Amino acid sequence: MDGIHDLGGMQGFGAVDHSPAEPVFHREWEARARALMEVVLGAVQPNGGEFRHAIERMAPGHYLTSSYYEHWLTAAATLAVEHGLLTREDLEARAGGLFPLSGPVLAPPVTDPGGDLGEPRFGVGDRVRVREWHPPGHTRCPRYIRGKTGVVVRLDGSYSLPDVEAHSGGERHEPTYSVRFDAAELWSDGQHGVCVHVDLWDSYLEQA
Amino acid sequence: MSEGAHHPAMSPVEERVAALEALLTERGLIPEGFIEQTIHRYESEIGPMNGAKVVARAWADPRYKQRLLADGTAAIAELGFRGAEGHHMVVVENTPTVHNVVVCTLCSCYPWPTLGLPPAWYKDAPYRARMVREPRVLLAEMGCELPSDTEIRVWDSSAEVRYLVLPQRPAGTEEMTEADLAALVTRDSMIGVARL
Q1: H helices within chain B, ranges in order?
Q2: How far is B159 from chain A (nearest CA, A)?
């Protein structure tokens, strides 16, 4: 989905709040939320990619104004409700207030994952173009490279396609590639000596 | 805790975490000690001290470095570091003319066995939005000023591979032991937002 999580290249965010020495957890609740996420995932056994997609479905305003541990908390609670482990009413009654959850899945279930794609279609050095499309479900193809042309620099073997597994009980395995894009291809501001590599599944790509 | 109890000292997000924990506990889903063990694992067992050992070994042993760059996963496993978010490691080497930096624009992908859990800034919007768009500017803002002719390679970890940057060995460290070398290696240098 073209969600708020897909941040690559967006402008206006300002400085990175960076500290070289940062604790693993800033607050006790972050650590507990991290552990509770594992409890929920163990109990509901989501499909691959389903947890990430639950984060992606957060309301954009909530996403941008909450820390990553709150994202994990929200996604864990969302999956607990969607899988029938808890209800929103349980959560809000116990929290003594609102318990914002992620929005609904927009994509239809994938009923036929299709067969695995065995042989890579592309090799190192091949020029490829990223499909220009806007899938409503989970995908690992960032928006900022869609329609852009790059060069394959590495083959990484076959993995389950997130777009299928997040919306299906099944899987389709496809080759993955690391693709290099020159900054001049991605942005119009013509930076010198900069390239961005993005790791992509086969079906995100077409021959350039 | 009574149903709907409100704790004035707790922030809304703390109330939500406590609510989820209480409900999962009532359903018998949290094994005794699980939360404490999980926290301990992330705070003490994994972290950048592991990646620092990998980097120091690569500096000290050219043949190890060769293996590390050829098959990161296997070479890192030689030092005992493996597991979730570290099954498919690629190590990218900084040189006098090339600087590498890692980001995850879509979420927070990060090599846990070698670097631990990611710092907050790595997961926040400004870093994820800007590192692919204006890396030279952002690196300089973060204190990593690069010569204008240094090539910058950004790696957006959008699939299964997780990246570790192999920083350049600082000058004047030829006589140092591997342990001393490891002590020089920072988390930031292995993400690529700092040089040593």
Answers
A1: 12-26, 34-40, 48-60, 62-70, 72-78, 112-115, 120-123, 125-130, 135-141, 178-184, 187-191
A2: 5
